[in-house]
Amino acid sequence: MQKDNNTCNKKKTENNTEKRNSCFSWRENELRTRRSTSAQRRPQPQQKHIEMMHCLTRFSRVGHPVFTSRCRLLHAITIDKYPELLEHCIQTKSLKHGKMIHQHLLKNDSNYYNGNRNYFVLEKITRFYLICDRLGLARNVFDEIPEPTVILWNLMIRAYAWNGPFEASLDLYSQMLVSGVIPSKYTFPFVLKACSGLSAIEPGKMIHSHALRLGLDSDVYVSTALLDLYAKCGDLARAENVFYGMQCRDIVAWNAMIAGFSAHGFFDDMMRLFGDMQEAGISPNSSTIVTMLPAVAQASGLSHGKEIHGYSVRRGFSKAVMVGTGLVDMYGKCGCISYARTIFDLLGVKNEVTWSAMIGAYVASDQMREALILFDHMLLEESSRSPPLVALCCALRACTKLIDLTNGRRIHGCILKSGFLSDLMVSNTSLSMYAKCGILDDAAMFFQEMNPVDRVSYGAMISGCVQNGNSLQALDTFRKMQLSGIDPDEATMLALLPACSHLASLKYGACTHGYSVIRGFVADTSICNALIDMYAKCGKVKTAREVFNRMHKRDIISWNSMIAGYGIHGLGSDALALFGELRNTGLMPDGITFISLLIACTHSGLVAEGKYWFDSMVREFQIIPRVDHCICMVDLLGRAGLLREARSFIDKMPCMPNVHVWSALLAACKIHKDVELAEEAAKRIHSLGPESSGNFVLLSNIYSCAGRWEDAASIRITQSNQGFKKRPGCSWVEINGVIHAFTGGDNSHPQSEQIYKKLKELLTETKKLGYEAVPGVVFQDVEEEEKEHILVYHSEKLAIAFATISLSPSQPIFVTKNLRVCGDCHDVIKYITLVTKREITVRDTSRFHHFKDGVCSCGDFW
DNA sequence: TTAGGGTTAG
C-alpha cells in the first residue's frame, strides 16, 4: 500500500506541469459543486492495507497501554485518549512515542479501518509527523484522510514549500482545489514560496488570480509572497505593481523588493528604494543589509558600500556574522582588500562562508599567495571540520593563477579526502588547475574520467589547450563537445576564438563568428572583442574594424584589441587615429592601451609619437609605467637605432629592469650590429636569469655577424651545457580548411618531394634576380654553400613552397610562424613575390609582414 | 553572506 502510494505520488510529481495546467484552470463557480463530491474524489484506503491491519490486530490484541508524562508505557488506554497523547507528543516532539501511538493505533484499533475511522486522530498524527520533520510519514497518513481541513492542507503545502520538492507543494494545492477546499489566506504564502523556488512564474500568476478572486491579495503576507515571487523571477515591473499597490508595507515587503533589484543587478533602483524605505519610516534591518551587499559588490559601488557599512556599524549589525561576511565580500570585490581583512579579523564568529569569502577576495584581488596562506590558516583553526567546498575551489583557483602545481595537487588531495570530487564545480576547478598548470595530458585524462561533464568542463579543457599552445587540440575538443550534444555558450566561444587567432585559421574563426551570430552571441561585447582580435590576427584587419564599428557597446578591451590589431599590421597611423577617437569617448585608456599603442608606434617607426605618448601616459592619464611599458620603450628606441638612448632609458626606468628589458636591447643590438652593447645586455641577462634560448641565439648570431666564430660557438656550448634547447621553428599554412605545419628541414609531409622541388625552382629563379643567402643568421663558421643549405630548409620557406603548389596563381599566400621570421627568409620572400607575382603574408610572433612586388610592409624594420 | 570554463598586451 505504501509503496503503491509512493509510486502514485511520484508519478503525480513527475506530471505536475501537466496537472498544474489542468488544475489552474480552476474557476470559482466550480468550487461549490466540487465540494459536494469531494469525499468520492479522495482516494479510499486500499483493500490490501485493510487486510494487513486486520492481520496485525489479530496478532497483537493484548490491551491498550498508555505512557505517562515520563514517557513510559504503563497501562491500557482507550481510543479517546489518542488525541490527548498525540498532542503531548506534538508539544514534546517525541518521535519515538508518537510512532508508538501510531503503531498501536494500526495494530489495535480495527474501528479505524472498518469504515468508522476517527479522522481527527489521523489529522493529529499528520501534524505530529510534520512537527517532527517526517514529511514522508506525514504524507502517507495525510493521503488516508478523505477530507482534510484547509489547515491540514496548508500545513502539508507549507512543509513541501520549506523542504521541497516544491513541485509537491503545487501538486497538493491543485489537489486541494480539485477536492473543493477553498484556499485560505495562509495557503497562498506557502504555495507562492514553492513557485519562487521553482521560478514558476506562470503558475504563480494563476495563483495570484485565485487570491484576487477570493479577495485575499490585499493581505500583507499574500501580497509580500506575490511580490517576492515576481522579484525572484525577475519580473520587477510586476513586483513593483504589487509593492506599490500594498496598503501597508512591512519591512519584509521592503526587503523583498530590495532583494529583487539586488539579485537582478538593478543597483540604482536598489539604492533608491533603500532611501525611500527610510523616508517611509521603516528602519532597514540586518536582512536588508545582507541582501544589498552582493549588489554593491557586483556594481563595485564602493562609496555606497561604505555608507552601508557605516549604517551597519551605527545600528550594531556589523558584528553579525552574515553582515560581516557580506562586508568582507563587498570590500574584496571593490578592491579594498585591507578593509575586507580588517573586518574579517574583527569578526568574533566566523562561519565557513566567511572564510570562503575572504579567500575568494584575495583571489579576486590577484593576491594568490595571501589566499593560500589564509587557506592553510583556516585548515589549522577549523581542523575539526572538513574544509568548505567553496574555500577549496578558491584556493585551487589561486594555485591555477600562480601555476603552482605542487600546492594545486595538495589541495586536490584535500578535495579527494573530503569527498567533494563528485561535485561538478569542484571537478571543473580541478580540471582547470591541471590544464593551466601545463600538464595537459593529465588534464585530458582527468577530463575523460569525469562523469558527468558540462559546458564548463569543455570550456576549461579548450582554454587549457590554447594556453598550452595546443590550439589544434582545442579545436578538436570543441568538435567533441558538439558531438556530445552540449551546447556551447559565450564563454566557450571566448575560449575557442583565441585558438583560431593563434592558428591564424580564418576558416575556423569565421565559422565561430557565424555560429555566434546564429546563437545571438554577437550582442556580447566580449565576443566582439575576441572577434576583433581573431580577424586582426588572421590578417583581416578591415573585417576586424567592421566588427568594431558595428558594436553597440565598446569597452576598453574593444579599443585595445583594435589598436593592437592595427599595430601588428604596421598601421601605426591608424592606431594613433583610433586612440584619438578613444579619447573623445570619455572612456579611460588603461595600461594595456598604452602597451598596444607603443607597440604600434614601434612597428611603424613612429619614435617621436611613441615617446610623446609614453610621457603623456604618466602626465595626462596618471598611469604609472610598468616594466611592460618600459620594454616597449626600449624596443621602440632600440629598433630605431637609438641604442644609447635606449640604454640611458633603462637607467632612468621607474622600476627595476628585468630580463625582458635587456632582451629587447639585445635584439636591437642584433639589428644594428652593436657587439659591445650586446655583450653588456647579455651579461645583465645572465646575472638576472633564468635565460631563454632566444637570448643565446641572439648573442650567438651577433658574434657570428661580427665574425667572432669562437665566441658564437662558446655561447652555443653554454646554452647546451645549461640545458637550454633552441625552440624549433614551425610554420603553417591553411589550405581549404586544413592546417599544414612544417618544421625546419621537415620531410614528413606526403607531398614533401614536390615541395622541395618547387622550393629549388623558386630559389633558382630568385637568384637570377639577385637573391643571395643572408650571412650572419647561421650560428657557425661554415662554408657559404653549406650555410645556404641550412637556410633553405627553414620552415617558412617550406610552407610557402607548399602553398605555391596548392593554391591557384591568383590566390594570396598566408603563412604563420611560431618565432620571428629570419632575415634570410624575409629577404627571399620578397624575391619570391617578384618571381611568382603573388602576394605573400607572413605572421610571426611579432607582427604581420605583407610582401608584394618585392617589398615588405614592415619596411625591413622588425 | 562565499563558488567552476571566457576576450586585449607582454
Report on the architecture of this protein.
By secondary structure, the chain is mainly α. It has 47 helices and eight strands. Strands 4-3-5-6-7-8 form a six-stranded mixed β-sheet, with helices on one face. Strands 1-2 form a two-stranded antiparallel sheet. Helix 25 runs antiparallel to helix 26 and helix 34 packs parallel to helix 36. It is elongated and about 120 Å long. The N terminus is likely disordered. The protein binds one DNA strand of 10 nucleotides through helix 18, helix 20, helix 22, helix 24 and helix 26. GO terms for molecular function: mRNA binding; zinc ion binding. Keywords: Repeat. It comes from Spinacia oleracea.
Provide a brief overview of the structure.
The chain is mainly α and 862 residues long. It contains 47 helices and eight strands. Among the domains are: 96 residues; 101 residues, Serine Threonine Protein Phosphatase 5, Tetratricopeptide repeat (Alpha Horseshoe), CATH 1.25.40; 126 residues, no CATH class.
Topology (SSEs and partners):
Layout: H1 2-14, H2 16-23, H3 28-36, H4 38-41, H5 47-59, E1 66-67, E2 73-75, H6 82-92, H7 95-108, H8 119-131, H9 135-142, H10 150-163, H11 166-178, H12 187-198, H13 201-213, H14 220-232, H15 236-245, H16 251-263, H17 267-279, H18 286-298, H19 302-315, H20 321-333, H21 337-346, H22 352-364, H23 368-381, H24 389-402, H25 405-418, H26 424-436, H27 440-449, H28 455-467, H29 471-483, H30 490-503, H31 506-518, H32 525-537, H33 541-550, H34 556-568, H35 572-585, H36 591-604, H37 607-619, H38 627-639, H39 643-652, H40 659-672, H41 675-688, H42 693-705, H43 709-721, E3 730-735, E4 738-743, H44 752-768, H45 784-792, H46 795-806, E5 813-817, H47 823-836, E6 840-843, E7 848-852, E8 855-856
Parallel strand pairs: 5-6
Antiparallel strand pairs: 1-2, 3-4, 3-5, 6-7, 7-8
This protein binds one DNA strand of 10 nucleotides through helix 18, helix 20, helix 22, helix 24 and helix 26.
